[in-house]
Design a protein that fits this description.
With about 200 residues, the protein is an alpha+beta fold. The chain contains seven helices and four strands. The chain has a four-stranded antiparallel beta sheet. A hairpin with a 2-residue loop joins strand 3 and strand 4. The longest helix has 27 residues, at about 55-80. The N and C termini lie far apart (about 50 Å). Keywords: Membrane, Transmembrane, Transmembrane helix.
Length: about 200
Amino acid sequence: MLIGSLFLGRVHEVNGQWIETKFVVFGIPLFPTSSMLVTKSAWRSRNGFNISLNKQSIIAGYARMFSVLTAAVFFILFFAQRDTGALVPGFSFLALWAYFYFIFGSPGTAEAEDRKRMGDLTGLYILPEWLSPEDAYRIYKRLEKKYLTEFDNADWLYDLQQNEIAPAKLPLLYTLSRFNYSLAATEANLKLFEKANRLYL
């Protein structure tokens, strides 16, 4: 019987990065302790960014575990007692497990596209709003430094407000404006992001 902690509820996977939740386990998952945006994984360990408890990941963690265990109980009853009445609920719970494993928590098209844009520049297939303000700010400053280096110390905020913008600047302007809005959700920052998003499409 497993006692300790276990990562469960893998959802929102894009390019090998996903959200998962750590549960306290005593044979079965008892309660979640933290969620993580996972960028690398190994046996029972994860690297990435701690995020707020993710509701979808928690639901997936419980649902996958309990549906497959319940299905197993009914199949054991069938094989042990030849109880054909156990087959219908057994296959029903197995189908429920398949839904929660293969469909539930899959990223939508818009989310996947947004995260691929982020990943192309940062290597992190994330949405900035998932991150803590500290992690988001650290990545934002790294992107800002990259913009300064690549474009002769240009101010990205100034550049984005111009009528003519070099296409080469658009990927970084999109990413910077997205992080900027996640850090300070003002009307002005939203308009900047919407402009970058429109131009980068």
